[in-house]
């Protein structure tokens, strides 16, 4: 009888310990053991990540390369469609996501974010010769487009609701595309009137196509920022990433990368803002 009770007690304790223990090692330990850091990103989002001569390059790529170097491991980037990038992170397809992702209240319910690395406020991109659109409110009655599931998608819908609430017209149409490059082509060809997207991305588009496009701001009343998304349970990786970004800021390296890819420095906070959209 005592042996039976002892066996039952041992089984119960083992079960409780299994429940209390994490199902997976922290991603930081996995990265070190694997000898490779795996980062998810949508490689069609200049200047954050894009293909150039067969290589993946960009602002985000330079940041995660510096992280991998600091850990003494290789870097692997996984090109992933935007709509599925956070689900893939949660399914452990990669260790983290750094892909021009805006820190939002909804996303923070699913993942943790590092301190910001860049500004992600949403603006409109319009044709430079379109005199009809000089202010954000001038998109009332126009055709607006963006990438499906992007921050431009959510913010543009919110802005349209604000227009309608103020007694103005909404958009004549709101079109969603699988990737941003499609929207730039449609805008250039006159099939849409404006593209909503993050400021650094659309600044790069303006710089790459001189005289073709211009930026119109005034959509958001709260500044938005971009950061690295990490699973909630991977607290050690979060601390490492935050410490590394803090060092990039302290050394001036982050500003150098901003100038390299955006054309100018950006002032970003050292913690995730408490007020998020």
Detailed description of the structure:
This protein is an alpha/beta fold and 277 residues long. The protein is built from ten helices and 14 strands. The protein has a five-stranded mixed beta sheet. It has a three-stranded parallel beta sheet with strand order 4-1-5. Strands 2-3 form a two-stranded antiparallel sheet. β9 (143-147), α6 (151-165) and β10 (173-177) form a beta-alpha-beta unit. The chain is globular and about 55 Å long. Mean pLDDT is 90; it is low at 1-9 and 11-21.
Give a brief description.
It contains ten helices and 14 strands. With 277 residues, it is of the alpha/beta class.
* Mean pLDDT level: 90
Distance between the termini: 62 Å
Structural Rg: 22 Å
Helix percentage range: 40-55%
Major β-sheet annotation: 5 strands, mixed
Strand content: 15-25%
Point out poorly predicted stretches: 1-9, 11-21
Biggest sheet: strand arrangement: 10-9-11-8-12
Q: Given the helix and strand composition, which structural class is it?
A: alpha/beta
Number of E-type strands: 14
Order of helices and strands: HHEEEHEHEHEEEEHEHEHEEEHH
Q: Count of helices?
A: 10
